[in-house]
Design goal:
Low-confidence stretches: 32-159, 912-1006
Distance between the termini: 253 Å
Strand content: 15-25%
Radius of gyration: 61 Å
Strand order of the largest sheet: 1-5-4-3-2
Shape: rod-shaped
Mean pLDDT: 79
Structural class: alpha+beta
Number of helices: 28
Helix content: 25-40%
Number of strands: 25
Largest sheet: 5 strands, mixed
């Protein structure tokens, strides 16, 4: 068969290809047989570290790290799927590389056979020798470890991306935080060598920025949700500072101010030594040049704050829980009402969270801290107010906490919030629990501190309830004691809420002026400037905290003033009445919403100015009597409780000294003309011991001596009644004030007085006195009637009611009714001031009253009208009735008739004033001269004023006190000194003896008159017989 040239060439090519393939197969087998031991030796070599050239540490530049640190950083920076390959993987990759390199060789067609033959015909022995005889320079190169191979493999297989400077700048601006909080455990657990301080005060590749366990990892925002392991032990994936960051293109450092440029171990030691501290830091990213950082090419920079937390001991945590948290928490209703979920309000309640979050803005647990009282709040933390640390310099991540709320079934988050809102106003028992940490999480087996407390959650109070509280619970007017104004301080609570807006629940705080506006303040304690911390008074029961605010605006020259300026103005104004307006507002964001006026009310505020001690001393000296007589009826009618003994052996306000029905009222000179009512039932105006006396600035007491010392109330009243009529030495004491109370250490004024208390006389004794001590009938000499004056004592008690103890006053007609008057002296109109005769021994003053009612045409007449009628009637016999009454309010009680008696009063007119001598009677017919007749028939005249004074019969509404009535009767009794003009011989005798003598009255006088009539009759008979005899002659 003949072949053309092309066919020959083809056959030649096939033979050459077959020879080449056979050569390759032979060579491969040779290498497998000869090279296998070398492979084994290579595996052994990989177990030892590759030789490293020794470099002097002094020659290391700022951008050069120790190889071990860089190796660890590289491992941390690698993604999880790029782990170091094994030996087998290296061999496989090498083989695959060889195979890939053969493919193109097989495809190459060489036109000449000689080009392949040297390679095919080369002996195997020569190939091995050539491998052994390699130059020594190549043997000096470090043997590549699997790490190095892996690195090289990554460089060969990973495509290199290019990151622009703009992307770097954007990454620094957007992906890094402004403030970094480094948990205390991170710093505490950090070691060197280790990654914690890598990149801090030293320049390293930018792709190592956020390796696991590195401080700079925390700078990235992505770190908040990324895992962490101390010293990078868990080899958590690195976080790229820029997406698809090109390797080796950029370098960085984070300069930490105040660390003196230290790095590595020196820096770590310094940070641990400083403990909790904030540092100013600067991120700097540089470009690269020749594979190194180009410090002249600053690509991006940013300033930030790094807060490194030192360790906080369990003892510090326990102390913080005990000292810094409240026992009781009041949660304003608006806080609960405005709380949302998701939101911070229920964070840490029935759930465990880091302890450093205890008092974040808008959190319920924030209110547990005492520091929250003066800290701002925003609903749901919208204002991002700073958190409050529960422990000073609390290390971050060291502790965790929860607040367990009893009765909430362990609910949390939205379920808990819904339940709290549904429950409304309610008190919960709560427990604070603080746990230690383990592996960055709460260790619930390590309970570090605990505390029980009460949490009061307030439900909403409606505007209608607030309006009703303003109308019903606030007074229309108040009196502010002067001492409150005197002792008030700024700063202090006195003016809180006055011309300024504060929470409505603070309306009735201790020491506050507005507390006095509440009706409930009347029985509540007070302390100046709230020093006693008395409980606040709520203007509304169950008032929701923080839901409403209020102010009390004062008018006049105080408008708009507050603080010290307002206090100074009030003091300068002295005693003054202000018109004030109470305004209650709604709330918004926990603050008053002045555009939402919920309720308003106008009130009157009477501020009492200050009274000097000198003025008080003068009042005690000038306005208080040296001695007083207390009517027995006052003592008889006194009750306990009641005003009679107020201020006696007890300290009360000085302005109450002269209250109606009070024993001490009688000490004031002003009481002589003032009305009185038993137990103050008539509510007569009080008498002030000092004009313009400031309320509450001074206090007083009247101490009684003897067996009443130290007694008060019912015990004192019983003792006074037992003692009966008795004179007490008493001491008036006036004190200054403190906290609205008497300051017994500050004695301002004192005075000794005598108090005569009249004991009680029984009704039976009065009845006996009327029966046994008053005559059945009397004969009143004409001269007594003739000499009587009006005003004067003669008709006192006749047709008018006066005190019973005045029954027997000198110059009184009723004196003659007493049996004891027979031997007692008399003076017309009481001019001699002869001692009064008592109708009853030991008669109590002011306990009883009496009158003697005359019949006939004198009935109802008194004073001058009565005197004129008696004189006009001439000699006449009257049927009179003696009536004795009880007393009420120091006046006669005409409804209480104690005793009565009928008596006969023979009043002689002037026509019987003289008795003729026996000679005249025998020889003369009685006659009178015209002049005498005229005098007898002439009626004496009286002025209207006299008639009014004598003719007025007291009624139950008269305001004449017992003391005044007695003095008037005594005066009448001393106005006139009487003579007895019955006959000239008697008158001559009286002149001779030069003294007034009460004539014989009663039965003896009647016998004398009878003898006189018989004498006259006998004289008349004798005269008729004589006349008859004379006619016969």
């Amino acid at each position: 068969m003949k072949f053309n040239p092309n066919q020959k060439y083809t056959r030649w090519s096939i033979r050459r290809l077959s020879v080449g393939v056979a050569s390759v197969v032979v060579a491969s087998g040779f290498f497998l047989l000869v090279g296998q031991p070398n492979t084994v030796h290579a595996d052994v070599l990989t177990s030892t570290p590759a030789p490293v050239l020794q470099v002097d540490s002094s020659s290391v530049e700022k951008n050069e790290l120790p190889e071990t640190v860089l190796k660890e950083a590289v491992d941390s920076a690698l993604p999880a799927n790029q782990t170091t390959p094994t030996t087998k993987e290296v061999v496989d990759e090498t083989n695959s590389s060889d195979k890939s390199s053969l493919a193109p060789k097989e495809e190459v067609v060489k036109p000449k056979e000689e080009e392949v033959m040297p390679e095919v015909n080369e002996p195997k022995e020569e190939k091995v020798l050539s491998e052994v005889n390699k130059p020594k320079e190549e043997e000096a190169k470090p043997v590549a470890t699997p790490d190095a191979v892996s690195k090289q493999d990554r460089e060969a297989t990973t495509p290199q991306s290019v990151t622009t400077p703009e992307e770097v700048k954007k990454g620094v601006a957007e992906n890094t935080k402004d403030t970094v909080d480094v948990p205390a455990t991170y710093l505490d657990k950090a070691n060197f060598p280790g990654p914690f301080t890598a990149g801090v005060n030293q320049v390293i590749p930018y792709e190592f920025f956020a390796g696991d366990g590195m401080l700079t990892r925390l700078i990235l925002k992505a770190s908040d949700k990324a895992p962490w392991s101390d010293n990078g032990s868990a080899k958590n994936p690195a976080l790229p500072p820029v997406e698809k960051l090109g390797k080796g293109l950029y370098f960085y450092e984070v300069d930490l101010a105040g660390t003196q440029g230290k790095s590595d171990k020196d820096l770590l030691d310094l940070l641990k030594q400083n403990g909790t501290q904030s540092y100013k830091a600067t991120i700097k990213v540089y470009g690269a040049k020749d594979g190194k950082a180009d410090l002249t090419n600053l690509v991006a920079t940013k300033d930030l704050d790094v807060n490194l937390n030192g360790l906080t001991t369990p003892a510090e945590v326990q102390k913080g829980v005990a000292d810094n948290t409240k026992d009781t928490v009041d949660v304003p209703a608006t806080y609960l009402d405005k709380a949302n979920f998701p939101g911070p309000f229920t964070a840490g309640v029935n759930q465990v969270i880091p302890y450093e979050f205890f008092a974040g803005d808008g959190m319920l647990t924030r209110l547990i801290l005492k520091a929250s009282d003066k800290a701002p709040w925003s609903d749901n933390g919208s204002a991002k107010n700073p958190a409050l640390p529960p422990v000073e310099k609390l290390g971050k991540g060291l502790y965790f906490y929860e607040v367990d709320l009893a009765g909430t079934q362990g609910k949390s988050d939205k379920d808990l919030l819904d339940l709290l809102k549904q429950n409304g106003t309610q008190s919960y028992k709560a427990t604070i629990k603080v746990y230690g940490a383990k592996d960055g999480k709460a260790d619930l087996t390590n309970l570090v501190a605990t505390k029980d407390l009460n949490v009061h959650l307030n439900g909403l109070t409606t505007p209608t309830q607030v309006k009703e509280s303003v109308v019903n619970n606030i007074k229309d007017m108040i009196d502010v004691p002067a001492s409150y104004l005197e002792k008030a301080n700024v700063p202090g609570p006195f003016l809180a809420g006055v011309n300024q807006v504060i929470p409505y629940e603070a309306f009735g705080g201790d020491g506050m002026l507005t507390r006095l506006l509440l009706k409930s303040s009347d029985k509540a304690p007070w302390s100046d400037n709230g020093t006693a911390k008395n409980p606040a008074l709520l203007p509304l029961e169950g008032l929701a905290k923080g839901q409403y605010f209020y102010e009390v605006d004062l008018n006049g020259n105080t408008t708009g003033k507050d603080g010290q300026a307002l206090l100074d103005q009030l003091r300068a104004n002295g005693t003054h009445t202000y018109q004030a307006t109470v305004k209650v507002y709604g709330a918004k964001d926990g603050k008053p919403d002045l555009s939402n006026l919920v309720a308003t009310k106008n009130v009157t505020v009477d501020m009492n100015g200050l009274i000097s001690k000198e003025a008080v001393k003068d009042s005690v000296t000038k306005n208080i009597k040296d001695h007083i007589d207390v009517p027995a009826s006052y003592l008889e009618k006194a009750n306990v409780p009641g005003p009679f003994l107020a201020g006696v052996n007890q300290v009360i306000p000085y302005e109450a000294f002269g209250g109606d029905g009070m024993l001490t009222r009688l000490l004031l000179k002003a009481s002589d003309k003032a009305p009185w009512s038993d137990n103050g039932s008539a509510k007569n105006p009080a008498l002030l011991p000092l004009e313009g006396l400031a309320k509450g600035q001074y206090f007083y007491e009247v101490d009684l001596n003897g067996n009443t010392t130290g007694k008060d109330g019912q015990a004192l009243l019983d003792q006074l009644r037992t003692n009966g009529t008795y004179a007490y030495q008493a001491t008036v004491k006036v004190y200054g004030a403190k906290d609205g109370k008497a300051d017994l250490t500050n004695l301002v004024a004192t005075k000794n007085v005598t108090v005569n208390l009249n004991g009680l006389v029984s009704k039976e004794a009065v009845k006996d006195s009327v029966t046994k001590n008053i005559k059945d009938h009397i004969d009143v000499p004409a001269s007594y009637l003739e000499k009587a004056n009006v005003p004067g004592p003669f008709l006192a008690g006749v047709n008018q009611v006066i005190p019973y103890e005045a029954f027997g006053g000198d110059g009184m007609l009723t004196r003659l009714l007493l049996k004891s008057s027979d031997k007692a002296p008399w003076s017309d109109n009481g001019t001699a001031n002869n001692p009064a005769l008592l109708p009853l021994e030991g008669l109590a003053k002011g306990q009883y009253f009496y009158e003697v009612d005359l019949n006939g045409n004198t009935t109802g007449k008194d004073g001058q009208a009565l005197l004129d009628q008696l004189r006009a009637n001439g000699t006449r016999s009257y049927q009179a009735t003696v009536k004795v009454y009880g007393a009420k309010d120091g006046k006669p009680d005409l409804t209480n008739l104690i005793a009565t008696r009928q008596v006969t009063i023979q009043l002689r007119g002037k026509e019987m004033a003289t008795i003729p001598s026996q000679e005249g009677q025998m020889n003369m017919k009685p006659s009178t001269t015209p002049s005498q007749e005229g005098e007898m028939n002439k009626k004496p005249s009286a002025t209207p004023s006299q008639e009014g004074q004598m003719n007025k019969k007291p009624s139950a509404t008269d305001s004449m006190s017992t003391t005044e009535g007695t003095k008037e009767v005594d005066h009448r009794m001393t106005d006139v000194k009487g003579e007895h003009p019955t006959s000239k011989p008697m008158a001559d005798t009286m002149k001779k003896n030069d003294k007034a003598t009460l004539p014989t009255t009663g039965e003896a006088q009647t016998a004398t008159a009878t003898i006189g009539f018989f004498g006259l009759a006998l004289a008349g008979i004798l005269s008729l017989l004589g006349l008859k005899a004379k006619q016969e002659d």
